[in-house]
Write a structure and sequence with these properties.
93 residues; alpha+beta; 24% strand; elongated
Length: 93
């Protein structure tokens, strides 16, 4: 294996990892981590992978994976929380 992986979950940090093409899974805590995405806000390298979304454990923000394909500038990628806040403000006005 060319790159050494450890679980990014601070309470786990296990090296008991199953590595796939675009993600890796911790066999100790069961969390799946994306290798293909980073956090547009804090630039964290590995995010929790939930099939259509990824979540940053540092920022606690969740992003749709399709947004990474649609936008090249990190500032253009909105989290689900940011999208909900914008929708809420638009409904109020």
């Amino acid at each position: 294996m060319s790159e050494e992986y450890r679980c990014s979950n601070p309470s786990c940090n296990s090296d008991n990892i199953s590595v796939g093409k675009e993600s890796f899974r911790c066999l100790s805590c069961g969390i799946k981590w994306s290798k293909s995405h980073h956090c547009p806000r804090c630039k964290r390298k590995y995010l929790m992978d939930f099939d259509t979304t990824v979540e940053c454990p540092v920022c606690n923000l969740e992003f749709e994976k399709k947004s990474f394909d649609e936008y090249t500038n990190d500032d253009d990628i909105l989290s689900l929380q940011e999208k909900h806040e914008i929708a809420k403000l638009l409904r109020e006005n």
